[in-house]
Predict the 3D structure of the following.
Amino acid sequence: MASYTFVFLLLSALYISAVVAAQQRSSNIGLGSSLSPSSTNSSSSWLSPSGTFAFGFYPKGNGFAIGIWFAQITQHTVVWTSNRDDPPLSRNATLLLTSDGRLILQDTPQGKEKSIADDSQSASWASMLDTGNFVLYNSTGKIIWQSFDSPTDTLLPGQRLVSGKELFSSVSETDHSTGIFMLSMQSDGNLVQYPNENPQTNSKAYWASGTYGQSDNVTLNLDDDGHLYLLNNTGFTIYNLFAGKPTNRTVFYRVAIDVDGIIRVYSIIMNQKNKLWSINWESPINKCEPKGICGFNAYCTLLNQTAICNCIPGFSFKDESLHSLGCELKINNEGYRNNTMSMLENTVWEEDLYYAILSSKTERDCKEACLADKYCEATSFQDQKCRKLSFPLRYGRRTLDRPTTPIFVKVSM
Ligand SMILES: *[C@@H]1O[C@H](CO)[C@@H](O)[C@H](O)[C@H]1NC(C)=O
Ligand SMILES: *[C@@H]1O[C@H](CO)[C@@H](O)[C@H](O)[C@H]1NC(C)=O
Ligand SMILES: *[C@@H]1O[C@H](CO)[C@@H](O)[C@H](O)[C@H]1NC(C)=O
Ligand SMILES: *[C@@H]1O[C@H](CO)[C@@H](O)[C@H](O)[C@H]1NC(C)=O
Ligand SMILES: *[C@@H]1O[C@H](CO)[C@@H](O)[C@H](O)[C@H]1NC(C)=O
Ligand SMILES: *[C@@H]1O[C@H](CO)[C@@H](O)[C@H](O)[C@H]1NC(C)=O
Ligand SMILES: *[C@@H]1O[C@H](CO)[C@@H](O)[C@H](O)[C@H]1NC(C)=O
């Protein structure tokens, strides 16, 4: 009986490792293989063995981009994009694993080439793995380049964000060019979210793990069960973002810094008919906190957990369909400015946002000092201190949970 159980366990173990091996085995892409967006002679993507991931051309704007996406999910979910800020590629583009082992893109009438992967070593074959990693191997089977080493806005299970690297949000759900937010795995051990602006100063951070100084070489890791955490140099978990959930092979996780600057852990059940991502965890901040979400001269109001952008008085949106571009002064067609100061209450702005500070006895004196100064566009008055502000005003957000100093904006009537 005991030995029967043993044999049974052994066989199950063998069976499980065979299944694992089969799932990790990749279909190899040989030298001379190519892809093109309009698949008349060749295909437009290479699939992983189980068909979960595809590497190749996906639509971008009026053309195409090269990337990796979930191939079995109707919600188009891109996890990596090559040269994400390049303009869309034409229908004539070709992606080629050359006979001398380089992964290149040809997209000009002259056939000019662009490297997609590091070409300091020549590849012998490539593979789209079921983990979502696209890999180039040399002749001895060693990995010489992998997409997992240059994440864009997403990490997949088994992929890590190493010390000194960042994830950048995308412009929109359909345009995966670099957007306005970043998540930085700093070399000081702190994991920090910033607006994507230089320099990244402490006062611009809108979320941080607080693991500053704990170790160098801290990494952000995502496991198969959704566990999202920081490891220190010696492999200890020093911070948990999301604990993960007991899982089975049909559930797939990913983590991304989204267009709105919030980090989210998503999961999907792969063997369901109508597959949809569900949110398992998100950055513990409100949706108005990502600095710059509303652009210049605007402030964010949280309405039923949704970020709504508002222009300051006298301003209107640059682009009604893209509020993150901010607001600009409404054109006064009479050609002169008859200015007054308009009050805006319960808002907070960038710290130390002023170019001059003077003592004024009253709020009225402060407003008049601004009206008399052509560089002054707004003021705040507190404790007999009058702060003069110039445009653009940024990182504005409405808050009702703490006392704030009102600001007065110069408005043309
Ligand atoms: C694509 O190739 C066709 C045929 O060679 C050519 O007529 C067309 O101009 C090319 N388009 C672009 C955008 O290069
Ligand atoms: C393959 O890559 C490994 C690791 O980079 C290297 O040690 C080895 O020399 C390479 N083999 C060949 C044949 O280039
Ligand atoms: C990593 O964390 C463990 C547990 O907190 C600690 O003992 C160890 O010293 C840390 N390693 C480094 C390099 O800081
Ligand atoms: C960084 O830490 C990871 C474990 O978290 C370890 O595997 C890796 O070797 C370390 N790298 C360096 C350069 O110390
Ligand atoms: C896998 O987990 C999901 C989510 O917890 C569940 O709905 C599904 O039934 C599980 N599948 C199996 C085969 O256990
Ligand atoms: C708030 O949002 C939730 C979920 O999106 C929705 O069900 C609810 O009706 C909304 N409430 C109001 C007052 O808009
Ligand atoms: C300027 O605006 C004020 C307040 O709205 C108004 O009383 C005044 O008549 C205006 N002056 C001119 C010259 O338009």
About this structure: Residues 304 surround 2-acetamido-2-deoxy-beta-D-glucopyranose (ligand 6) (CB under 6 Å). Confidence is low (pLDDT under 50) at residues 1-25.
